[in-house]
Amino acid sequence: MGMLAPWLLGGFAFLVVPWIIHRKRKPPRNPTPFSSLMFVPQGAPTTRARKRVENPWLMALRMLLLLLLALAFTRPYEEVLATYSAEGPESVWHVLLVDVSASMAADGQVAARDAAIDSALDAMGASDSVAVVAFDGEAQVLLPFAPPDGPARNGVAGARKALAALPAPAGATDYRVALATAESLLRRVEDSEDTPARREIHLVSDLQRTGLPSDGRQEPLSEDIVLHLYPVTGEMTSNVAVEEVALLRRPEGKLMVRARVQYYGESPVQLTCRVVVDGEEAERQSLSLSGHGSRTLSFLVDADTTMSHRVAVEAVEPDALSGDNHRYAYYTPEPMREIGVLWAMPGAAPQDVSRFLNAAMAESQPLPWTLTGLGIDEWLGGGDEDGLPTVLVVVGSALDGEGAKRVQSHMEAGGRILFIPDRAGFSEAILERLLKPLGIQGAEPRFSELDGGRYAGFSWVDFEHPVFQSFREPQYSDFSMVRFQNFFRIDQEDNDQASVIARLEGDRIGDEFPALITANAGEGKVLLWAFPLDPSWTNLMRTRRFIPLLHESIALLLPELPAPRTWHTGELPRWFSDSSVTVTAVRYPNADTWEGTETMSRLRDPGFLQWADGEGVVHSVESVNLSRRESDPATFDEEAFRLRVTRVGEVPSEDVATVALSPAQDVVHWEYGYPLLAILLAGYVLESGIALWLARPQRGES
Fold it and tell me: Which residues pair with 203 in a beta bridge?
């Protein structure tokens, strides 16, 4: 017997209140009719002390109610051992969840995990049924429950045998997948068993916070499932991780390697990082990081950018979790995409367009495209369309009928076009031949004259569209400083081809104008801006929004890049399940020999993976890395973890890590607060009735 809030026993002091009230209260006086007393001399008034409490039973009831109220707020409880009857013994089913994520590979974690597993198995009964599940980002059932009607059930001995095949730690932690798998196993038992079953989950893990993100939906465990936690505490209190690597081609045979280094410790630390290209160290840098600090390092190394390279960035400073001190990337040269700007006069673009586009896509920047100017006469005289740029930027009034016809055939065959008006808007040929079939009409200036004190801004932006996704964060989503002294009014019909992804303000709510429109034209794609790159019309080019908006617009029109040739440990290669890819041999990271595909399993080791076809030709080298989520050593405490995965108000049974229960017994936790409140309510109704009965008018009173 105990109390969860014993300090509230101080409420017993209020028991004196009814006694004081009943002592001080004077009984009502009933006047008695009598003849005139004017001739009777007045005597001195006498004061008579009260000798007894009026209505002592009512006072006692009120004091009892106050006593019950104080007891209810202290939340008294009792824990008793419940023993199940011998006539119908309850079967007990356990699911042992073992965390095999990458963070469990830190120094001391594996030994602590094995000790926690032994504690969990020792608490189970010899006749209980046990299932074993290993999990990281996915759940792998190592030992399922045997059928209830089978000859024998999987017990503790079978669980210990299954744990011998526990995979090496790798992959990212996901508790939601693990708990859902365990509950699914237990539900199958419930559906197939006729007798009552007690279901328990034993979780052995370091309770890493990144494994249960707050932004994801977490379905709580059912109330009839008991969760036992076995926290594994190793030595990964701080960690250094190389979390990102980007490879950028630079001119003159240079390869730019950029890496982000994160430090999760409290005290400042000195590090040395190096970049390794094709197995040879190319450069190293020393740096210092403050507590929970990060740095982005840039290495410029000599490399033939026309060939593939294996690149690794390593933090030389060792720490408890060494697997994320290395980040691997495989460089594959890709042809540069050509961006052609089409204008009317040969050899020269309109001044504003040329100035702003050249500044935004300068050759000195490591961009996956090049900017080429095309005069209309030069372009029309080119003849063969095979040499057309990947993306055409068509300036408003540049095209006549013949030029628009050629752009139309190029667009319908898969060409990508960015339309930007100039001060004169769009030519008649562009409007009639290219835009009108897409449901886009109009292009009259919003205002006939420019007024420096009059401007419009963005009224709506679709931040879910790829062009604007990079602006979704609060620090980038503010377009209020982008102003338009003028723009072109575009009418866009409702159809399946074109859609508006941003709008400009009108004179009133609902009177808005398209600012950016995307459309599909045959096999091609079109993006239209409703404003020219003219400083007298808009200040967009002078804000920090212009260059990323232009780059994202170009990126939308570029053909899709091939899938990244990297993934995380604990996953299967993407091509493994692709029937169109023939793979006959693989070489695992850090391995010296080739193996057949029948040995392919989930990758457990970071590094470079190679695969070959039936002729033994190596077709690809892929990079495999630890998930950056596993680098963060922050963990839940047991109470916080329970609150996230169990239903509110559920009182877990005593943790078997500290109290070993017999197979036929369990701890039952009884709270008496709610019954006391129910009695209190009934007593309040009784007290009110008695008080009303005592206060009723007496017979014969005037």
Answer: 97, 229
Listed in order, strand segments (DSSP E) in 58-105 are 76-83, 91-99
Mean pLDDT, range 44-52, rounded to an integer = 54
Nearest to 339 by CA among 541, 116, 556, 126: 556
**Cα-Cα-Cα-Cα dihedral of 544, 561, 278, 169, to 10°?**
90
Mean pLDDT of 383-391: 62
Dihedral (CA of 215, 221, 226, 230) sign: negative
| DSSP conformation letters of 152-190 | ----HHHHHHHGGGPPPS-S---HHHHHHHHHHHHHHHH
Q: Which residue has the tokens 């936690």?
A: 229
Q: Which residues contact 248 (CB under 8 A, 6 or more apart)?
A: 255, 256, 257, 258, 366
At 126, list the tokens: 């010899």
Is the pLDDT at 272 greater than 80? The verdict is yes
- The residue among 244, 183, 236 whose CA lies nearest residue 210 is 236
DSSP type of residue 538: B
How far apart, in whole angstroms, are the C-alpha atoms of residue 532 and residue 538?
8
The 3-class secondary structure across 573-619, one letter per residue, is CHHHHCCCCCCCEEECCCCCCCEEHHHCCCCCCCEEEEEECCCCCEE
The residue whose two tokens read 């017997």 is: 1
Beta-sheet pairing, 91-99 with 129-135: parallel
Which residues, including other chains, have CB under 8 Å from residue 219's CB and lie 6 or more apart? 176, 180
Closest CA to 132 of 100, 174, 168, 173: 100
pLDDT band at 310 (very low <50, low <70, confident <90, very high): very high
Give tens-digit pLDDT for 477-518. Answer: 899 999 999 999 988 877 778 899 999 998 877 789 999 999
d(CA 310, CA 44): 115
- The encoded tokens of residue 123 equal 């608490």
What pairs with residue 456 in β-bridges? 484
Residue 2 amino acid letter: G
**Distance from C-alpha of 217 to C-alpha of 201, rounded to nearest angstrom:** 20
The more confidently predicted of residues 198 and 700 is 198
Instruction: Work out the percent of the chain whose per-residue pLDDT is above 70.
Output: 78
Q: Which residues pair with 2 in a beta bridge?
A: 77
Strand order in the sheet with 585-587: 566-568, 618-625, 607-612, 585-587, 595-596
Distance CA 692, CA 273 (A): 85
CA distance 198 to 84: 11
